[in-house]
Amino acid sequence: MKDQSRRKFVKSSLGASLGLGLSAPAAKELFVHHVYFYLKNPDSAADKAKLIEGLNKLAKVPTIKFVHIGEPAATTRSVIERSYAVSWLCFFNNLMEEEIYQTHPIHLKFVEDYSALWEKVVVYDSTGPKR
Amino acid sequence: MKDQSRRKFVKSSLGASLGLGLSAPAAKELFVHHVYFYLKNPDSAADKAKLIEGLNKLAKVPTIKFVHIGEPAATTRSVIERSYAVSWLCFFNNLMEEEIYQTHPIHLKFVEDYSALWEKVVVYDSTGPKR
């Protein structure tokens, strides 16, 4: 049995034998912040490149644990929303670290320097256990 | 210097010395598939739990490289969409592996067993370089 599996097994056995939902330590959370940017000039490759340049600077906020900058994929099923220009996905350890990001000077400077490019943003913040 | 940093350094030095944007090998892609589920009975904790149970089975599709199941976070700025019930985020190496997932028996069984629970899904598929 691998160490990690063993720990999981021990934890769940303990939980089961004590009959308490509370006996196992709380699973670590992951805070997922996903932003979809819609450009004022959706056909401008220059504006899109400029926004991506800005996001690459924004990625330096120290509480960001993982980041991915994307564009709509080639998939086209009817349930797929693909009219945004740029996807900005980042992970934080928790809500508090996301709040630090929101007010971090790098973030404020990003908004100041690049917000003229976008028409709107749609943001989804989700939390759930790390797996 | 760590091995990875050294490789990056060697790659970028090579690129710089040859003066060619093409000299570095293409960065690896990451395919990000993010689904937001809206329940028929948004206030039913039982339905939400059942959907999460289904997603935990769906997570076993072998081409999934990373998965996170989430619920709307406590953040409430006006740009934040939080009327969905469950967020399903997964990473694939590329479009082909996402297509394998779409038609995998585990995925088809998930849709068969759980789709009665949701009113709609909104899907965002994004691709961009792995960092």
UniProtKB/TrEMBL annotation, chains A, B:
* InterPro entries (UniProt xref): Dabb (IPR013097), Dimeric_a/b-barrel (IPR011008), TAT_signal (IPR006311)
* Residue stretches making up the Stress-response A/B barrel domain: 31-126
Q: What is the protein name given in its UniProt record?
A: Dabb family protein
